[in-house]
Structures are given as structure tokens and as C-alpha cells.
Amino acid sequence: MQINDQIYSNFKSKLDSSNHEEEIRLAWATLIESTLHIKGIHAEEDKRDMSFNNVLIEFKDHGLFHHSKESKKFIEATDQRIKKYVKRWSKSIKKPQSFFIGIVTDGVDMSLCQIINNEVKSGNLMPITQKNTEYVLEAINRQMRYALNSSTLIDLFGRNSSIGTSLIKDLFQTLEADLSDKQTNKTKLFYEEWGNLYGQVADIAAWKKKSMLTQLGFPVNSDLSHVLFCLNTYNSIIVKSLAAELVSTTDIAAYSNFSESLYLTDDESLLNKINEQVEQSHYFEMANIHNFVSEVLFSWYLSSKNKSATLIDSLRSLYEHMSLMNVNEHEAMRSGDALKNFYEDLIPDALRKTLGEFYTPDWMVQYMIEKLPSIEDRSILDPTCGSGSFLLEAISQKTTYFSKIGMAPDKQLAHIEKEVVGFDLNPLAVQTARVNYLFSIIDLVKRCPGITIEIPILLADAIYAPEVDKDSNLYTYTIGSKVANLTVSIPKELVDSRTDLVSTFELLNNHISNKDSFNIVLPTLKLKFPKANSSFFSSLQDTYDRIQDLHRKQWDGIWFQIIANFFWSIELPKFDFIIGNPPWVRWSSLPELYRERVKNTAIKYDIFSDHKYHGGNELDISALITYTVADRWLKKNGELSFLLPQEHLQNDSSSGFRQLSIKNDYLQPINIEDLKSLKIFKSAVNKPMIFTFVKTEKAIHFPVDYTIWSNVNNKKTVNPNRNLIDIKKTASKSKLKIKPLHNNIRSPWIFGSADDLSKFDKIIGEPTYKGRKGITTDLNGVFFPELLQRGTNNLVQIQTRPEAGRKNIGDKRKAWIEDSLVYPLIKGSSNIQPGYGTYDPKLRVILTNTGIGSKAYEEAVTKMNSLPKTLNYLTGFKNLLEDRSTFKKFMPGAPYWAVYNVGEYTLAPYKVVWSEIGQSLKASLFTDVNGKVFIPDHKTYFAAFDNIHDAVFLMCILNNSTISRLVTNSTVSTSRGDILKHLHLPKYDAKNKLHFQLVNEFLKSKKVDKKLNDDLTDRILF
Questions:
Q1: pLDDT tens-place string over residues 305-348
Q2: Which of 383, 497, 532, 539 could make an SS bond with 462 (beta carbons 3.0 to 4.6 A apart)?
Q3: How do residues 856-897 score in pLDDT, each as one tens digit?
Q4: CA distance 965 to 960
Q5: Rounded to whole angstroms, how far apart are CA atoms 837 and 924?
Q6: Euclidean distance between CA atoms 815 and 817, whole angstroms
């Protein structure tokens, strides 16, 4: 809100020449009408000096406040007038007292007031200046305090709001300037360390980056990682400011009206005050809320020497509007939804999906907590807590129970701090969760004057935690980026006491800041730890020297704070329950440095797959998190309940997850709820399950209860805002059982009814058939061309298909080649149906080799040399062909045009083919087209036969309904693979009447009669 200089000058002149409140009232009325164009101002109505909508203004004669809130007339204006009118008005129009805006002024000074719980909370007593008057006019223009909810936060501070747009732009300009600065600076340090956590952003495809940047309002050539860092910084500013504003409404605060105080601070002091009060947590410490702000990565902009010219103005605007928030009415914050929705609006869906960030819907949080045995007097941990949804629900249930039994507020807080704990590796998530946690307990805190609290949300890693060396009694831990790569050694006796650890680190950090050598601090350490031996001090010196070396390079300011956070998790006791929704991120998508650091942990738990070339290193990180947290933080007989990918039960990549044992303990599944048919995450298609197990010393037993959710209210998509009671009433579920396919628990698990499982047992065993993967080319647009026409001399004209693959092969290109290597193509699920398969007559495949290995390659080269036109066609793509991943990894010595997954079986005359992808199993028979056999592509699997009767027999068997359920219930729909490797099926026997009848019926009718086929195959199999 800006006032015309002339209008303000006239206003101020009238005030300066006034003596009585009536003159002051007229001056304000003229100002309000001329600047805000507000009509219908009520003067002296119902004994109120001035009012309209939800704003009340009380005037006193000129100068009677005497520049003091303790003056008689100030107290009269607030306590006797504003308070009385607000209470009366609030009751009349049925709005909370805290939504009204009160203003008192004596023509010299002015103050904004709010009524909270029948008590006046007056703001700063501000001299009437142009800036301060603009601030008060903004409050008047608002006409009531902002409601604290997600929609208001988004409207006021969202990415597309005027405040959000300007401040994010300022942060981005500042960051770009700092990162391009030739001098070392803290911004580079903080960005580098943040990038160590979020390196996977770099792996997003270029076209996706451009789309995201456009959506975010940035030039398409911007660095997306830089943009995300600025968005995270902005979000951090918002959540910490909200927390400070909340504290300022309570009696525990050192001073009230936090945001207003920042708004009124002069330009030179504003950034220092933000740094001191917020980033260094002094404001919270003075309120006895300890270690509330411990992530420092997002404070980089405060120390920048390249600040945007408008950065301070943008920050001031933020605090101006934040001061008008009605944080006292914070019901919307209790579930964490407000900050969750704000973040979802700030970061586009596609970007959050890439980062593996999916917020769990409230109804699912409530459901999973509800499924646990009574949590009222038991401890609960969420080791990947995000914004803290599970913790907030646990707090809600505990406070309801504690209040019911009459527990004192201080006792309630003690229980909650001890029993409801979370941590996360993302510093922004940690800060957001701490803010949400504070909002959920603030009413208890208000009732406990002088109490000291520490929000038990840790910046810690659920996988990569410090471990003690039993020989040296030292914890050794490596943190930081490749540039910092800081390895620290901390004595166990120091780690065992968080109080000693924090105070020691503060001491060391102060001496490093003073550029002292370790010898200067050593006497103080010896006094602090009189019983410590020489190795205790030498290990601390080693850590001190390493951090001091980084300090000399200006790579400093954060290390002791980060180390203290990571070591806090070691002190935690084991918990009765562990619950949450860990991130779902593929191993290959993790930052390289992080992969290297956690690799030994994965090996320790034997979590990698047994299948080297079938996803062994494509482990989903959620599997590893499950094991590390169950081992380190779950009590014996404690329960863990996670929302995990359902694929863990059947994917080859997750065979290590399915072992369910850690040392001498077993992770006995209690129940599994399959949610893969539902869409429960907004803007994400995934296949979740609720996996619950108990940690026990008893060997695992099967089968286990397995519940499938098929729909909610006859819909697959579940509204995230639906009420849990309604969802439970309208959910359609099937109660089944699940167990491993074989005696080996690491094998895929299969679910079904008791009758189905009994049938499945009869055909599960040593395979009698071999499944093969279709041809892999890694350049389908070249190898799978369109057939245009046939010519003379056994030539065919083909055309490349640029749309057929991810790699850019250029525009469509025509060529005449020899027909010798050209075959009809089986192209995925669209060609598969029970009976004879279909094909696209226009599509062909160029089969350059029929085997893998030196001999097969030699034969292929000889053949290719006799086909000059085909060789010339492929030579035109030589660079692309040599760059294929499969060619480089698995085909040493091969000619550059060779293809993979081929053998004698590729040219077999009869093939039974099924798709790698599909909701249910279908099998087709393929023979030939004009003497040319069909070649399956890499999205299909097949069994090869020389005899049509053998092929027809297996095709009919695989189209049996029970077989279809067996395959569907034991494989992942997106990677069926070799479905035959677990099936002990009969081979065709012409002397067996049922076998003969089955094959003969198909050969006569040329189709599969579903009912007849099930009847005959059931009799054969069962």
C-alpha cells in the first residue's frame, strides 16, 4: 500500500495542527476515503470512534499516549474501548474476536491491536510516518485479519502471488550472481551441500525441464536446480516466519508482534535481525524452544554480497502481510495440511514426482495410525517424516487420550516429546515438520509458563547413520559434497550425551570462528572432560583440524550444526511403532555420491537382488530404509507399518527385501493391504501397499493376510480430502492370503484364495519350459522400419520411424535394402490375444544377427558383407548404433549393428508369445508370413518350438484362467518377464487323450474357446 506524497503531506499537516480527537478522526477519515476509496465509514456509532466491516479505530487527543503503551490513555483506548467493542461485535456477528483489527492513535503514535482469549494484544507503538501509515492503511484495506489456512497462504505467498513472484525472483537473481562470482562464498557452499541431497534433479530429461521451467515462470535456459534451491529457500522463509509469528502471540515470547517488528526495522538492520532472530534461532531460544532452527542451508541469501536491489523490499512486504495473519486461529495447521498444500502449489507435480515427494493423504495417515494397536502410552517414530503428517495424527490421538484421563499439560508435553519422534534427510521437510509440530502443541505450551521444549524432529538419515567402531570406540562419519567431503571422528562417550555433544560443538565452533588453533581450546576441553584419555582429545583435534581447513577456504559455518543433528539419531531409544511413507526412488536415480556412501549399508543387509542383470541395482530405496530403521530403532515385538511399492513383493529387484530377517531377528508380516488398483496420490500413478510387520525372534510363517482394495465408492481415484469414515464405508475389499512361490522366501510372493493357493501349489516347481525375451535393439526407429513396397531382385523399400524410440534419429528416411534380414514384427501387447496373434503388416524388423558371441558375430559379419544395401543403410546410423547402452555393456567384440537377446530360438518356426506388460496374462501363437517367421520385440517374452502341436498345447495351457491368476498374482504387471520359470507344466503327449483333444480343438477352430479351454486344461493340470 503506497500513499501519494502530497496526500500524506496534507494528512500529516492536519495531525500536527490538531489538538482534539475529533480533528484526528477527520484527518484519518479523509485519508482513508482518498486512498482506499472506502465509503460507509461509521464515526461515533455505538460509542465507537470509527468502524467499518471488521475494523475499529479509537482516537485520543493529540499526544496523550506520551509515546508509551503504559500510558493511561493508551490503556484506556485498548483495554477499555477496543476490547469492549470487539467482544460485543464478535458476539453480534458470530466471528472470533481475533479476526477483528483494532487501531488506536493519538495523532502522534499508533498501534494495531488484536483480542485473543478476551485479552488485548497490542502491537508496536509506531510513530506516524509515511511508511508506518502505509502499513496501517494496508491493515484497514484488508478489513479483517487473514485466516490461517492453505488457500490464504497460497493467495498471499504462493508462487504466483505478487509477494511470491517478487521475492522468488530476487532470490534467483541473488543466487545466480553468487554462483557466478569468482570469489568463494557461503552461497556456493550451501548450494553445493543442498545439491548433494538433490542431485537427481540433474537427471530430468531436457524437454521435461523446459516444461517445468515454463510452468514456474522462468526462462527455459535456466538451471532447474538453481530454481528449485530458490523455491526451497522461499518456502523455508515462509514456514519459519509463520512459526515465529505464532510464538509471538503467546506469553512465552520475548516480545510480541514478530513480523510487524521486522517490517518496522530499517533497511540496514533487517537482514541482520532475520539472521539473528530466525536463522540463529534466538527468538525461539528466548521462548525456551531449543534447537528449533538447525538447518542453515537456506540462510545463504542473508550473507550474499550480490543481493538483488529489491530483495529487502520484497522481504519487508512479506512481513507486512504476515503480521496481519490471524495465527491464533490455527486449527488448519494441526493436520499439517496448510503447509503441505502450500508446498504442493509451490513445486509443480512433475518436479515433486521426480524427487519422489508424495504427501500421504490425511485419510490414509489416519487409517494407518488407526490400524496400530493402542498408541496412547507407546512411542512412535516416522523416520522419513516429510511435513510430519503421521506425527501430527499421533499427537492428536495422544492429546485426546491425555485430556480424557486428566493429565496435566506439562506431563502431556513430556510424553509427546519423548514418544512422538521423526526425522528426515531433507532440511526443508525437517523445518516444516517442526513448525507443524509446534502448531500442534502450542496450546499446551501456553498452559505451561517457563517450560522448556525441544521439538523431536531431527535432520538425520534413515539409511546412512553413524556407527561406532568397537575397537577404537569412535564414531566415524562422512558428510558433505565431493568438495567438502568431511570425515569426522567423534568419541562414543561424547555422542552418548547430547548435552555434552552440543555444548562441545558450540565451543569448538566459536574457537574456529576466532581462528584459534586446537591447542587454545584444549585446556577448556580437559576441564570439561577431566576423565577423558588422550585418544578422546586426539579424535576431536582431527575433526577440529578438518573443519578449520574448510573454514580457511570459506567453506564454513555449518559443519558442527549438521554433525550434531546427524548424531542425535544415535541417542534415540528403540520405539514401539515405526510408521510412514518412505521415499520411492530407484537406486540409479540417487545422487552418485550418496549411492557410494550407502552402498555398504545395502550390502550389510544383503538387500540387493540375486538377479544381476534383472534389476539387481535397481533397488527401490524404500526397501533399504525399511531394513535400517527396523534394525536400529524398532523394539523387539515392535511393529512397523510403511506405505511401500507393491512391487517389492514380486519384483526381481526386491528379492533382498523379501528375506525379512536381520541378524537374529525376523520381520514377520502381520497383514498386507494392496492398494495398487486405487489412485491415492494426487497426480501420480503408482502401486502402493500398506506393509505391516512385527520384529520377532520367531521364524517367519506363511500364509499371511492379504487384502486387496478394488475401489472406493465404485471409483478408482480417491479424493484426498475424503473423510476416513466415508472411505471405510464405501471401500470394496477382498480378503486373500499371500506366501512365497517356493520354499525360498526371496522368491516372488503369490496371493489368492485358499482354493487358488492349493491349485497353484500343484503347478509351481522346476520349470519345464524356457521363456525368452524378445529382441533388444536400443534403436527401434532404425531396426523396426515401416515396409513401403517390394521391388525386384529381392529388394524391399523401408522407411525409418523416428517416433518409435526416445533417441533422435533425425527425420524419416527411405531406403532400399535386401529382403534377407527383414522379418515380420511382434510389437507388444496390442498383438497378443488368446489363439493366433495379430500383427501390423507395415512393420518389419531387421534381424542382423542370430546369436551372441564371437562365432555368431563372425557369421553375422560374413552375411552382412553379402548385403551391401542393408550395410549401407545401417552405416548411416553408425554413431547412434555404437552409442547404444546394451551394445556397450553386454556385447564386447560385436559389430556395431548387432542386436541383443537373440539366438537359435529367435528363428524358431512356432512361438508362444505373451506381453511383458498387461493387467492379465494372454498368450498367442505365431507362425510365419510367407515363410518368414515372426520376431518378437523386447516388450514381449516367448517360448520357441519346432513342432506346432507342442506350441498349441502350451498356448492353451497359458490361457487357462487359473494359470492367468497365478501369473497375475505373482508378477508385476509392468514386467511379467519369464512367467515359465516358476511353473512345472506338463509337456504335450500325443497319446494322452486330453492333450490330443485340447490341441485338436484349437487346430480345427483356429480360436480359443474360453469355457472349453478352461475345462480341458483344468482336467489336465489339476
A1: 999 999 999 999 999 999 999 988 887 777 667 888 899 889 88
A2: 383
A3: 999 999 999 999 999 999 999 999 999 999 999 999 999 999
A4: 9
A5: 5
A6: 6
